[in-house]
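About this split. The held-out portion is used to measure sequence recovery: a designer receives only the structure tokens and must propose an amino acid at every position. Recovery is the fraction of positions where the proposal matches the reference. Here is one held-out target exactly as it appears in the evaluation file.
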């Protein structure tokens, strides 16, 4: 049985009322008292959800937000404000000019941010007098775990496709890799938004499957490492677009071998995260040290090259791939920190 689960008897009082007592600890934690009203919502045929008044008030406050934009505000500043408001969990975001109207560059920046960065968002009103954005996605439609798994899958595909693009000298595939990085960032922003909502409300924290707010911070750091993995795949793709030629096949095969190892370790570290497996996380950290043997193979192969430009490109690609194993190790460290208490209890 879950440590948060309790069993209570249904009692009969008066002539027609059935009652169930509420857990005392829950009442104390929320600061409720006799006479306070709570809201009950029936979910399906067998589930009843109970919401405290503080939760209801907080939901109402998070319905709508307005950003006022000055005529001199740059696109980057506007996008940062949009992302910050999105993170806070508002369902409707109004962007209005302080004076006059939004200029074309400002409107384009807002539209691009909604399309590329704010998952589950849609522009429902658009004019020079202001833009209204609605966040439509529901917590139950896309869980944090579901978004994270999709993000991880995209990142791994980017890494494989980036090296394939270099092998085939495929500029179109390289452009696809770079564009996919925007999609990875969208999932990252969405997860951060949900984590912030969870931290602010005890009910949502439990609903998303987190034991405590500290675990939300751990997930936030993991998401950042996955985002960086995608960034390095985009760096490899950008390198091809810059030089427009491949590198020596024998060395590229060795880079591909290193990439497969790094993605395998990254996969295992995320699996340890989902399984909350402290012992597996320890093993992953040890395994990441094996990256040195792949580095040595590439370094030895570089000795046969004379072209300084090609040597520079290979070293830069190798560094980007190596970073994946470092991020995998960082994720495993986070898993250790998140599950140390469970590990101590088991050993005790």
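Reference sequence for scoring:
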């Amino acid at each position: 049985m879950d440590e948060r689960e309790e069993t209570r008897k249904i009692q009969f009082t008066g002539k027609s009322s059935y009652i169930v007592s509420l857990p005392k600890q829950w009442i104390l934690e929320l600061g409720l008292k006799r006479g306070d009203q709570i809201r009950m919502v029936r979910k399906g045929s067998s589930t009843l959800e109970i919401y405290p008044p503080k939760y209801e008030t907080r939901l109402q406050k998070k319905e709508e937000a307005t950003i006022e934009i000055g005529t001199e505000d740059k696109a980057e500043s506007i996008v940062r404000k949009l992302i910050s408001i999105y993170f806070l969990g508002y369902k409707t975001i109004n962007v209005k000019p302080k004076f006059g109207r939004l200029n074309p560059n400002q409107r384009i920046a807002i539209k691009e941010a909604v399309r590329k960065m704010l998952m589950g968002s849609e522009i429902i009103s658009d004019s020079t007098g202001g833009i209204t954005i609605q966040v439509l996605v529901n917590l139950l439609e896309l869980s944090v775990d579901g978004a994270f798994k999709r993000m991880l899958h995209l990142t791994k595909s980017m890494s494989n496709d980036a090296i394939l693009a270099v092998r085939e000298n495929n500029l179109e595939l390289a452009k696809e890799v770079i564009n996919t990085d925007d999609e990875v960032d969208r999932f990252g922003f969405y997860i951060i938004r949900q984590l912030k909502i969870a931290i602010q409300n005890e009910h949502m924290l439990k609903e998303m499957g987190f034991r405590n707010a500290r675990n939300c911070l751990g997930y936030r750091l993991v998401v950042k490492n996955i985002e960086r993995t995608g960034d390095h795949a985009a760096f490899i793709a950008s390198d091809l677009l810059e030089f427009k030629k491949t590198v020596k096949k024998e060395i590229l095969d060795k880079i591909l071998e290193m990439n497969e190892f790094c993605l395998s370790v990254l996969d295992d570290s995320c699996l340890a995260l989902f399984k909350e497996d402290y012992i597996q996380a320890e093993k992953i950290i040890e395994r990441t040290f094996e990256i040195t043997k792949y580095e040595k193979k590439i370094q030895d192969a570089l000795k046969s090259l004379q072209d300084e430009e090609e040597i520079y490109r290979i070293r830069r690609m190798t560094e980007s791939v190596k970073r994946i194993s470092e991020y995998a190790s960082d994720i495993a460290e986070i898993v250790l920190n998140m599950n140390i208490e469970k590990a101590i209890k088991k050993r005790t």
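Annotator remark: The chain has three domains: 11-52, 60-135, 144-347.
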